[in-house]
């Protein structure tokens, strides 16, 4: 079915499509959750139209550099739970583009634009 070779979770590309086992796109890969002590994968966080969702490692079938395929069917994918834990914040350089006074002052004082995921 896939012509792409499997890669390690370390090589998973954020923004890659995450698919169900039937090939339906669930969303895009936000990030991989790693277990640092054992260097294993705990699961992935997927950006969907309903917000961030978590897929456990045992539900991941294949990771390539172009996509991630899960073992979930379409119905299971629609019922994915949001990730648990504290809120995640990130800075996007693209959010700092603009000509308004607020945006110029923010850049002048090196204020990053934090967004909550």
The total tally of domains equals 2
The best one-word shape is: elongated
Number of helices: 2
CATH homology-level superfamily of the largest domain: PRC-barrel domain
Name of the CATH class of the largest domain: Mainly Beta
Major sheet summary line: 6 strands, mixed
Number of E-type strands? 8
How do the SSEs run, as a string of H and E?
EEEEEEHEHE
**Strand ordering within the main sheet:** 4-3-2-1-6-5
Give me the CATH architecture of the largest domain, please.
Answer: Roll
In the CATH scheme, what's the topology name of the largest domain? SH3 type barrels
Percent helix range: 10-25%
Uncertain segments of ≥5 residues (pLDDT<50)? none
Ends distance? 33 Å
- Rounded to the nearest angstrom, the radius of gyration is 17 Å
- Strand pairing plus helix content: what structural class? mainly beta
Report on this structure.
- The chain is built from 2 helices and 8 strands, in the order E-E-E-E-E-E-H-E-H-E.
- The longest helix is centred in the last third of the chain and has 8 residues, at 101-108.
- Strands 4-3-2-1-6-5 form a 6-stranded mixed β-sheet.
- By secondary structure, the protein is mostly beta strands.
- The chain has 2 domains: 1-85, PRC-barrel domain (SH3 type barrels), CATH 2.30.30.240; 87-117, no CATH class.
- The mean pLDDT is 83.
- The protein has helices at residues 74-78, 101-108; strands at residues 17-19, 25-35, 40-48, 51-56, 60-63, 68-70, 89-91, 114-116.
- A hairpin with a 4-residue loop joins strand 5 and strand 6 (68-70).
- It starts with 16 loop residues before the first strand and ends with a strand.
